[in-house]
Design brief:
Rossmann fold, 2 domains, 318 residues, globular, Helicase, Ruva Protein, domain 3
Length: 318
Amino acid sequence: MAIEQFSTLKQHLSDQIVGQPALVENLLIALLANGHLIVEGPPGLAKTRAVNALADGVEADFHRIQFTPDLLPADLTGTDIYRPEDGTFVFQPGPLFQNLILADEINRAPAKVQSALLEAMAEGQVTVGKTTYKLPELFLVMATQNPLEQEGTYPLPEAQLDRFLMHLEIDYPNAAAELDILRLNRGEALGKSNKPKSQITQQDIFTARKDVLEIYLAPVLEQYIVDLIMATRDGDKYDEQLNKWLAYGASPRATIALDRCSRARAWLNGRDFVSPEDIQAVLHNVLRHRLMLTYQAEAEGISSNQVIDHILSLVAVG
């Protein structure tokens, strides 16, 4: 039953997020793999709409946080409020205590705010004063970055980037999708409802996550995942050029993420086993933000995507 529910949810998201199939698929993969997603793309590409549509299809609370340079950690975590009538402090939870969080333009917030978000993403909790508060079991952060404007931004620390399950790059839709967007917007302006007929419960999601973990992954593909990650750390075993391009490779979190994401993709496609294509399909999104390139690579205009393409050409299955 769960796979049918997620197929219905995927169709709902595809109807609402026109021209961005990769965003729809990877948002569901992140939900099933219990990870966070960072999305980079120009403004106006339905990034906010995507999380809103997901919240409509899932039994979950949603909150959007616009990151700005004057944001404080308490604006995310909440704070202790003084009650003069009895002289006590009462904790007022912040927006991080929702299930689905849209962290809009995440790289515009300073380091203290990023550290508060990092604890939430990594540990599923926030600390205010001397007290630690657990976040909901269903907790997903989708952060966005605008690649067109870098003035007034703060580069995210590597430790925080590593906490994101995937880094997705999206671009403008084609002409046919643009026409569908125009018609969809007109229908909404006329009051046409786009709400799904039913919602997936949180328990359904937790059950689906267990099903994903039970998807069969052959030992040869387990080794393939490890070989792909090891190629980022010890490139000279495969290719001298690769070693010149990479300063630091991916951490073990990348290995785990590649395993979880490939399983989730296989499950979403109705299979009970992982194929090499599943691993290859998610590899760019899993590694893109985890590779540190050398100055030589940057001078040659080599991108992370090109390095990952090169790794795929070098590392064979089995």
